[in-house]
Amino acid sequence: QLIAVSKKKSVEVIRQGIKAGAKHLGENYIQEAVGKIDTIGKQSAVWHFIGHLQSNKAKIAVQYFEYIHTVDTLKLAKEINKQAKKIDKTQKIFLQVNISDEETKSGTDSKEAIELASQISHFGNLSLQGLMCMPPFFSNPESARIYFKQLKQIQEKITARNFDNVSMEHLSMGMSNDFKVAIQEGSTMVRVGTSIFGSRE
Which superfamily, per CATH, for 2-197? Predict the structure, then answer.
């Protein structure tokens, strides 16, 4: 699946993207996304939240997004589950794994991902769909391959545990510069903005 990353794009540009066939749209900032989704319509596309999510914004994220790709703590998962329960929704989520252990990147430690998946499996209003990662940026996409392979290995380990409410059918990895390598390594969702909408102003 191709997620067209529409952050910082105008409503008009996004509408053109939908008209051209974009079915899945990714947004990074809650406040910005809410205005756009209200204007364009929630039913116009499948909306994915792919930015860093603070617990106090979980309520809005649950109301507006079908998928949340960036769950990286038990605290956040608990809050999303609580908010989803209030509106009788099963929220589809991904675990964001900090595969490169960069201090500047969000994501759970790769060693803790299995334990976090186990804890999340007990939440009745969450459906853990898979894993997400953002490897370091390399000018040569081939350099990212090792990180995509690592995420795939974690996916396989979690799948083998057969946790409740955990399907692990998706790997959200690969962006404009490295999505081809990501797909070769098993990605099922790539997050592409620049290649579709052009560079952000």
Answer: Alanine racemase (3.20.20.10)
How far apart are alpha carbons 128 and 86 in whole angstroms?
18
Residue with tokens 């899945």: 24
What confidence tens digit (pLDDT) does each residue in 95-115 have? Answer: 999 999 888 889 999 999 999
Which residue stretches of the chain have pLDDT < 50?
201
Structure tokens at 133: 């990662």
Q: Give the H or E element holding residue 159.
A: helix 145-161
In angstroms, the CA 143 to CA 166 distance is 30
Domain residue extents for the chain: 2-197
Its pTM surpasses 0.90: yes
Distance CA 182, CA 180 (A): 5
What is the rounded CA–CA span in Å between residue 33 and residue 104? 24
- CB count within 10 Å of CB 124 equals 12
